[in-house]
Design brief:
The structure is a homodimer of 462-residue chains.
Chain A lengths: L1 E3 L2 H8 L6 E3 L9 H11 L3 H17 L3 E7 H4 L7 E4 L11 H14 L5 H9 L4 E4 L5 E2 L11 E6 L6 E5 L15 H29 L2 E2 H9 L10 H16 L3 H12 L4 H18 L7 E7 L2 E6 L2 E8 L5 E4 L12 E2 L18 H4 L6 H14 E10 L5 E7 L1 H7 L4 E7 L7 E8 L2 H13 L4
C-alpha cells in the first residue's frame, strides 16, 4: 500500500500486517485558495513560458562576471544621488517607521556630511524633510546591515560587462563602533570620515595599480575561491578579504607613510572588506536577471530593519512583510534575544545567487551558528536547494563533494513547501546604540513570497 | 562462526549455509621474525612504560605553542653554523650521493654567498671539500624541498617557550625559478639575494611592529585557523599565509617606497610564506618531544632526495630508506612521472604532529590531488589515524565534524599494519633543473619504520 499524506493512515494499515510506503505530502500552500490557484496557474497553463523565463534568469545569475573597477565619490557616480540624499538599505519606508539602529546610522551619516553636529540636530533635520531618504537599491547601490550612505561617501564601482550596467557599495565600515552597526557616537562618525579621507585615498590608487598590472578583479572568482576556504561570502568573508588584500599589497605598500599605516591598521582588522564588494557584484547581477519578464524567480531580497522585501524578475516592485527576528543566533557576552533588532540590510541579495545561506555548507564558521557541526550548515544549504531552480557552476561546496550551491529561488517552490530562504547575518542592538550584539541565520518571512506569487499571476506578463 | 584472517575459509563455511562474520586479520609485520619479536616486546613486556612515554610525547606534540619572534642572519643564530657551512634538508649524505635538484640548489647557495660565480665553479668548490655540508636538522633548522641555506641567509627565529629552545627556517623562496625547486640559473641566485637584501630588511621591521603591538605570533594558532580555511598547512598554506600577511600589513605599509613595493610584489605571489614558519614551529616541537626516552613515537621525518629518514623520540639517530617517488601526483603540463625527482625536503616534520597528510581532509586543494573528491583526502587522514596514538586538540578538521587531526605516529602500528605516513608535497624536476614539475602525496617507505622499531628494542632504554 502507498500512503500519501498523514502517516496515521499508513500506521492503521501497517498494524494489520500490510506493507506500507509513506509519502510525505501536505496540502500545498497550507490550502489557501488564492495561493493554490496561483500555483495551479504557474505550474499548469503558464508553466512552459515560466520555465523558459526562469532558465534565462538562472543563466544570468550563474554566468554574470562583474568586475571591481575602482572607487569613486557617491555623488559623482550613483544615479539620482542629490546633494541631500541619504541611501538606506531595504525597501522604501517613511522616517517615522525607521528602526533604532538605522536611525542612528542615518544620524551618523548626516554628521559625517557636516549637515548637523549632534544626533539630535541630525534627527531634527531628517524629520523636517530636508533630507531625501532613498532606498539604496533603487539607485543601483547596496549596503550591509544599517549602512547609510551620504553624497560624500566613497563607493566601490562594480561593472557588469554582460549588461553594461554598474552597481555601487560603500567601503565596509569595519568592526566595533561603526554606524553600519547602529552606532552614532563621535567615534562612529569619525569612522565615516576615516573611510572618506584616509581609506579611500589609499585604497583607490592601490586598486588602480592592481587593476593596471592584473586587469579588473573578477569578484565572483574571488568569492568562489573563498568558498573553497571556508567563506559563505556573506557572514564570513575572511578568506576572500585576505585574497583581495594580498592582491592589493603592492599598491598599499606604495602608499605614503603615516596615512598608509593608519589605513593598513584598519584593513588588518576588517575581515569583511570583501562583503560590500561582493554585494555590489550580486546587485548588478540580480539587476541584470531582473530584466527577464514572466519569471517566478526571486532576484532581490533586502531588509530595512522594519520590513523585509523581495523583488521578482520582470516585476519592478517590492513585496514586503515585517522584518523577522534572526532565529538561529549566537549573542556576544551580556546580550540576548531581547537586545536583538530585526533582520536588516541589503546583503540578502547574496542569497539569490548561491552565496550566504545557500553556501552555508562551505563554511565551518557558519556551522558554529547552526549547532556547531557541519550538519547544521548542510541543512541550511539543503533548505535552499529545495526551493531553488538551479545550481551554480562556479560556487562549489567542498563538503558536498564540490556540488554547485543552489541558485534561483523559485516562488512556486517556496509557497508550495512553505520553506523560505536562510540568510546568514549579523544582529544589531535593538535600542541601545551599542552596535553588533550577535550573529546568526535568519529565515525569510513566507508572507512576502506568497504576496509575490500572487503578484506574478496578476502581472500583465502572466 | 567467526572467521579470522583469510576470507576463503569463511566462504567455505558460508557455502554450507552457516552464518559467518569475517575478521580482517593478517600476520603482523608480514611475519618477519625479528619484527614480530619486536612487536611482541613493545606491545608486551615493555608496553606499560612505552605507553607512558608515548603519552608524554603526544602531550608535547599537542601542547607546544612556539612563537615567531623575528628574523636574523643564519650565521648569527643557527648553532654550529660556520663561515663555510651549507645546510641541506633530510638525513646526512655525502656530496657524491646528492640528487640533481639538491645539487643545483647548493650551487645557487654557493653563488649567492659569493663563493663562486658559476654552477661549475660552485660544484668544484663543494667537491673539493672546502664547503661544510651539514644536515639542517642537526642544527635546529629545517628547509622545504631542496632548500639550501648559507651563512648569510636570513632565517625566521621560532621560540618554544615550553622547552626554551629555538628553531630556524629560511624565508620561503617563492614560486618559479628558485633554488628550493632545484634551479641554479642567475634568476634563481638573484632570488636568494632578494631574500637577503630586500625581503629581510622589509619583513624584519614589519614583523617587529606586529609583535610589538600584538605580541609574539602563536604559529600553531595561525595553522589551526588555516585548517578551518582549507589549508593542510603543508602543500597548501594559502589561508595561513594570507592571515600572516594581513597581520603584517601595517608594518609592511610602513616600509620605504621602492624596496617595499618590490617585496610586496614578491609576497603577493607567494602563497607558501607560512610553510617555512610552521615547519620551524614543528621542528622545535618535535625536538622537545624527542627528549622523552623510551617511546615508540616518530618525532622527525625528513628527506634529502636520496634517502628518507625518521627519528624516534629518545633515540638520537636516523633510520633511513631510499627516498620514495611521490606516488599520487598531478604534473604540470608537459611533465610526467619520468621527470620526477624522489620525495625531498624537511617539511615532513609537519606530518608528525597533525598537519600535512594528517590534515588532508581539511583541504579541498589537497583533495584535488587525491581523486578530486573529499573522500580521497579523508582516506589519507584515516590512514594517518590508523597509525597514530593520539589526536590534536587544536588542529580540527571541519569535514570530519571538527575532530582533531591524528598526531603521534606509533612505529608499532606502522609495522603491524604496514601502513606508513602520507605526506603532501611538491615534485621537482629530476635532472633538468627546470624547477617544480608537479605535486602530490608521497607514502613513506616502510623499511625506515621497521628499522626504527628494531632500533627501539635494541636501545639501552628498552
Amino acid at each position: 500500500m502507498v500512503n500519501v499524506g498523514l502517516r496515521l493512515f499508513g500506521d492503521a494499515v501497517r498494524s494489520q500486517g500490510v506493507g506500507v510506503v509513506d509519502v510525505d505530502w501536505r496540502i500545498p500552500a497550507g490550502g489557501d485558495p488564492a495561493l493554490v490557484a496561483a500555483l495551479t496557474t504557474t505550474y499548469g497553463t503558464h508553466s512552459a513560458r515560466i520555465e523558459e523565463a526562469n532558465a534565462e534568469v538562472c543563466r544570468r545569475l550563474d554566468s554574470a562576471a562583474p568586475v571591481l573597477s575602482g572607487l569613486a565619490t557617491a555623488r559623482d557616480v550613483v544615479p539620482g544621488m542629490g546633494d541631500r540624499t541619504l541611501l538606506h538599505p531595504g525597501p522604501p519606508l517613511a522616517w517615522e517607521d525607521v528602526c533604532d539602529p538605522l536611525r542612528r546610522s542615518a544620524h551618523a551619516a548626516v554628521m559625517a556630511e557636516g549637515w548637523a553636529d549632534t544626533p539630535e540636530a541630525a534627527e531634527a533635520l531628517i524629520a523636517s524633510g530636508d533630507v531625501d531618504l532613498q532606498p539604496a537599491n533603487e539607485h543601483a547601490t547596496v549596503g550591509p546591515m544599517a549602512t547609510v550612505l551620504g553624497p560624500s561617501a566613497p563607493v566601490f564601482v562594480v561593472e557588469n560587462p554582460q549588461s553594461g550596467a554598474r552597481a555601487f557599495a560603500g567601503i565596509n565600515q569595519g568592526p566595533g563602533a561603526a554606524p553600519w552597526f547602529g552606532v552614532e557616537t563621535p567615534e562612529a562618525v569619525a569612522r565615516l570620515v576615516l573611510l572618506r579621507e584616509a581609506v579611500r585615498p589609499v585604497l583607490e590608487p592601490a586598486l588602480g595599480a592592481t587593476i593596471e598590472s592584473g586587469g579588473p578583479i573578477d569578484i565572483f572568482s574571488v568569492a568562489a575561491q573563498g568558498l573553497q576556504m571556508g567563506d559563505d561570502a556573506h557572514m564570513r568573508t575572511q578568506a576572500s578579504t585576505n585574497l583581495l588584500i594580498r592582491a592589493l599589497l603592492p599598491g598599499l605598500v606604495a602608499a605614503d607613510g603615516d596615512r598608509g599605516v593608519k589605513v593598513a591598521r584598519f584593513l588588518a582588522t576588517n575581515h569583511l572588506l570583501f562583503l560590500n564588494v561582493v554585494m555590489a557584484a550580486a546587485k548588478t547581477t540580480s539587476d541584470w536577471a531582473s530584466a527577464v519578464p514572466g519569471s517566478s524567480i526571486v532576484t532581490g531580497m533586502a531588509r530595512n530593519g522594519t520590513t523585509f522585501g523581495i523583488k521578482v524578475a520582470g516585476l519592478d516592485r517590492w513585496f514586503t512583510a515585517p522584518a523577522p527576528d534572526v532565529g538561529q543566533a549566537l549573542f556576544h557576552p551580556g546580550y540576548g534575544p531581547a537586545d536583538a533588532a530585526p533582520d536588516i540590510g541589503d546583503s540578502a541579495v547574496l542569497e539569490t545567487l548561491g552565496l550566504g545561506g545557500a553556501a552555508a555548507a562551505a563554511s565551518p564558521a557558519v556551522a558554529t551558528f547552526l549547532g556547531g557541526k557541519m550538519a547544521g550548515a548542510v541543512a541550511a544549504t539543503r533548505a535552499m536547494e529545495s526551493i531553488c531552480a538551479g545550481r551554480s557552476t562556479r560556487f562549489r561546496i567542498p563538503y558536498l563533494d564540490f556540488s554547485g550551491s543552489p541558485i534561483g529561488i523559485d516562488l512556486r517552490r517556496v509557497v508550495t513547501l512553505e520553506v523560505t530562504p536562510r540568510i546568514t547575518t549579523g544582529i544589531l542592538d535593538a535600542a541601545g546604540g551599542r552596535g553588533q550584539v550577535g550573529a546568526g541565520v535568519a529565515t525569510a518571512p513566507l508572507a512576502a513570497f506568497q504576496a509575490a506569487l500572487l503578484g506574478v499571476v496578476e502581472s500583465p506578463e502572466a
